[in-house]
Amino acid sequence: MQLSAWNTNVDKQRSHSVFPVFMYDSDIGFGFGGKGIVKNQFQKDESFDLILFGSTRGEQWYVFTFSVPDFEIRQGKRYPVSLDVKLEYDKLLKSNFFGIGNDSQDNDHTFPREFVKMEAALSRAFTERFIGECFVRFAHYSVYGYDPAWGTLSTSVPGAGETSLSAVGLKIRFDTRDSQINPRRGIRIEVLSEKAVRILGSDWGYAKVRFEASVYQSLFNRNHVLAVRLWSQQIDGNVPYEELSKIGDSWTGRGYKADRFLDKAMALASTEYRLPVFRKLGCVVFMDIGRVWPSFSGFGWRKWHEDGGVGLRYYLENFVVRLDVGMSKEGTRVFINFGQVF
User: Fold this and answer.
1) How far apart, in whole angstroms, are the C-alpha atoms of residue 212 and residue 227?
2) Of 339, 334, 319, 321, which Cα lies nearest the Cα of 30?
3) How do residues 231-260 score in pLDDT, each as one tens digit?
4) Could you tell me the pTM of the whole model?
5) What is the DSSP letter of 100?
6) Is residue 5 in some structural domain?
7) In 3-state terms, the chain is what percent helix, strand and coil (to 5)?
8) What pLDDT score was predicted for residue 280?
9) Rounded Cα gap, residues 155 and 3, in angstroms
10) What's the maximum distance between 2 C-alpha atoms anywhere in the chain?
11) Which of 17, 19, 130, 288 is in the most buried spot, having the most CB atoms within 10 Å?
């Protein structure tokens, strides 16, 4: 199928999607809030995305994203330039830390942690499928109220206390998906290179390289989709623990607590079978397997962490609402979030 080039005279219809949230998450308790997207309000193919969220375990999460052109409108088209700006604040009164390494032990210690993040990215689609992007990212982390007697997190752990991060990076992406919101066919391959730079005010200096590939194939009909993702990442240098590669949350190992396994290198594979249930409602069956290392020089096939589970998807015009129940040898986790995992 031949994809069209970017055309500012198409996709000009105004649209909006709003979804209230009342939910339970194993990491944050009962939550409430909402998500809304307004698209093409000013007829520039722009979008405004807002998340407001709070929970009974003390999380406050606010996210604002502005994109022009909107990421779904520009999918599969050539365009000269796009701008994406994201502002995020998250405060969690019961955050986890289990130590660093693939053999870290589970615990029930929790403590307050908060962060403020800002990211701005410029991208260009050189062809309908080949996209280049440059970005700058700023973050400030605060960890406080931790008892050093617990023996895992202390001032000797990089990132404990107050710390700031500034980084610049490049992304190269090959993308044949038919949608960014809910792809049913195609592939996506992305390579990221990021450098934390002290000249911009960063307390840290490190280099990150990430490779991610996803494949989507319709089965039986277009609404039955098999999706597979491979993800690997390596970090070299002085890095705060909040930025380490990780297995464990609603985006990686869905059967494990948030931030369960941390280290500088990570590999992850995920598979989902997505199928319809009724109208806008769908479900998924999934499996994740991954592990972390100090570096890929220690790569091996032992002590990988597996999980599996089922989930529901509710498909709106501008985003997907998802519920996943992940099960592993360490228990069962429940997550509700926005967007497909991959």
Assistant:
1) 13
2) 334
3) 999 999 999 999 999 999 999 999 999 999
4) 0.88
5) S
6) no
7) 5, 60, 35
8) 93
9) 53
10) 63
11) 288
Output the six-digit token pair for 186: 């195609």
- Express each pLDDT in 69-104 by its tens digit: 999 999 999 999 999 999 999 999 888 889 899 999
- DSSP H helices, the chain, are none
pLDDT (0 to 100) of residue 2? 34
Four-CA torsion 226, 73, 232, 287, nearest 10 degrees: -30
Q: How many domains, in total, are found in the chain?
A: 1
Burial 273-301 (b: 16+ CB within 10 A, else e): ebbbeeeeebebebbbbbbbbeeeeeeee
Say what the pLDDT of residue 13 is: 80
Identify the domain containing residue 306 by its residue range: 15-338
- CA–CA dist 221, 78 (Å, integer): 28
pLDDT exceeds cutoff 50 at 187: yes
Q: CA-based angle 62:66:71, to the nearest 5?
A: 115
In a domain? residue 2: no
Kindly state whether residue 221 falls inside one of the protein's structural domains. Answer: yes
- 10 located within any domain: no
Helix and strand numbers, DSSP H then E, in the chain: 0, 18
Q: What is the pLDDT of residues 145-176, one digit of tens each?
A: 666 665 566 656 788 889 999 999 999 999 99
Return the pLDDT at 254: 95
Residue 268, domain CATH: 2.40.160.50
pLDDT for residue 337: 86
